[in-house]
Model the fold of this input.
Amino acid sequence: MTIRVLLIDDHEVVRRGIGNLLSAEPDLEVVGEAGDGKSGIRRVGFDNPDVVLLDVRLPDVSGVDACREIKQRFPKTKVVMLTSHADPSAVGAAIRNGADGFLLKQLDGEAIVAGIRAVVAGRSAIDPELTATVFAHLRGELQEDPRLSGLNERERRILDLMAKGMTNRQIADDIYLAEKTVKNYVSGILRKLDMSTRTEAAAFMARTAAKRTPSAEQWQ
Done:
């Protein structure tokens, strides 16, 4: 049986790389691709894929929201989320909304291919690094600062980019928003966090990341 795969990722280079990887497998066929969530959801209806590889972060709707709509409209279609970061909250949200797998983009090609075959066979596909992080989160070892709960997904994304030292212009280019819109978001984020400067927010995120990173001793 040939497994039909649809790629949804806003980076063309990523789509091309994964597409070339999958096309080299005799039992996999890339039947379509999309660069944003809304067009990706439409393509599921057009292309009738067995598996959708779906980026967590998209320029128009969140990957989790896209996953939920795909699973509601096309319940037989398997959805494997792809992410660059081991974020336990994102993994949990995706699973609650029907995701069949969750893989890191940094995985080698064999792991991604194996994940696709696993979900088609009725098994789940979650990268071991993500599994460890999620279990630590569930055990309470990775506590999230309550101030972050007041931010929506886009605000969290902008805050992450602020923490990386990106300017408003760079953030605007990254998430396809006007620079003025990003400036307004930044002001709102600082207000919700009860902070006055970007530097303070970046330091806060660095401390949060350190608390959320499990040490090797936790897995022994």
